[in-house]
Amino acid sequence: MKILLSLIAILLGFNLIVILTPEKLDNTSSLLIGVSSSLIATGIFVIATDVFQRRILPWYGDKVYRGCRVDGEWTLSNGNNEQRLELTQFGDEVQGTYSHISEGEKDTYILKGNIKESFLSAMAYPKSQRHIDSIVFLLKVDICDGKYVMKGSYLSVGEGCDVAYQPDLRFVWQPT
Question: Closest by alpha carbon to 94, among 142, 126, 58, 131?
Fold first, then answer.
């Protein structure tokens, strides 16, 4: 694909020179036209490559993806602790936010991960500069009691230098 875009850019630059070149043009003018047309062609190539990699490839990957979808809002409530995942999915890449409310304080994390064969593995980084802890999730998408759920666990920073392990999580999908 890059070779094809390079060829198009070269042809555009060449055509620009042919169109703008009168029969008798001095060397300086010819050089300026050649340099400017190659800069224009390079700019077109860079923009086309960026659009292709950032927009077209993810869109296509999302359209051909055949695994389970985890887009939307997922909640987990137990007593005074509420946890929430808000996810968007493009193909097998998942991103979004994780937040939890504990003792009236809400912490929000930026989540990025992948889903393969109904397993979501993700890493969540704190949104706030005041926190340094990260969270690692491993969740399995399943249907339990007629509800779409993600069951699994996460690891996070514990007391002191310990790693805290939170087993038996059960996030339930909230239809919108």
Answer: 58
**Chain-centroid distance, C-alpha 46:** 21
3-state secondary structure the chain: CHHHHHHHHHHHHHHHHHHHCCCCCCHHHHHHHHHHHHHHHHHHHHHHHHHHHHHHHHHHHHHHCCCCCCCEEEEEEECCEEEEEEEEEECCEEEEEEEEEECCEEEEEEEEEEEECCEEEEEEEECCCCCCCCEEEEEEEEEECCEEEEEEEEEEECCCCCEEEEEEEEEEEECC
Distances (CA, A) of 100 to 70, 77, 82: 19, 10, 6
Tokens at 31, concatenated: 């050089």
Give per-10-residue mean pLDDT for the chain (176 aa): 56 53 66 87 93 87 82 84 90 92 85 93 89 89 90 85 86 85
Residue 47's closest CA among 59, 56, 34? 56
Question: Tokens 């060397």 belong to which residue?
Answer: 27
Beta carbons of 123 and 111 less than 8 angstroms apart: yes
